[in-house]
Amino acid sequence: MDICAICAAQIDGTPDETHWRGLASAMWSEDAAVQVVSVRMLKRLGTGWAQDLLDQVYLDEDTQAWVDNVAAASQHKDANGATLEQGDTVVLIKDLPVKGAGFTAKRGTAVRGISLVADNPEHIEGRVEGQRIVILTQFVKKK
After folding, report:
1. Same-domain check for residues 11 and 40
2. Is the domain of 94 the same as that of 58?
3. From CA 42, how far away is CA 64, in angstroms rounded?
4. Which residue among 73, 92, 121 closes a domain?
5. CA dihedral 29, 30, 33, 35 (to 10 degrees)
6. Helix %, strand %, coil % of the chain (to 5)
7. pLDDT 10s digits, 107-126
8. How far apart are CA 41 and CA 47, in angstroms?
């Protein structure tokens, strides 16, 4: 089964909530891989409608184990080992020079509404001084 280019880009990037409304039907697919991707994306979206769908979905034991293994392998942790979630607020624990932007993100700066980089558990994305930047998780703590 193929996915569209927009879905492929958003699986590893920042998902656009409106594009993923089709998960309401995709999560019922008989293909386990489609079920796993559907549940994974619903968890990343985490909004009211996505949570409602997660409450409805049923997965057999093997498929649920697959979802759990994907989730465990991609957990983002802050400098203290706390698990980071999509939308969390974090605080920088040291001054970070921002390459290409010409400024330094100062220690103590709060970064609200972070996005998790799906293919790298050591990276998150967030806005600092109006710029969207990638931040190493070792330099943040969960607020």
Report:
1. yes
2. no
3. 14
4. 73
5. 40
6. 40, 20, 40
7. 999 999 998 887 688 899 99
8. 11
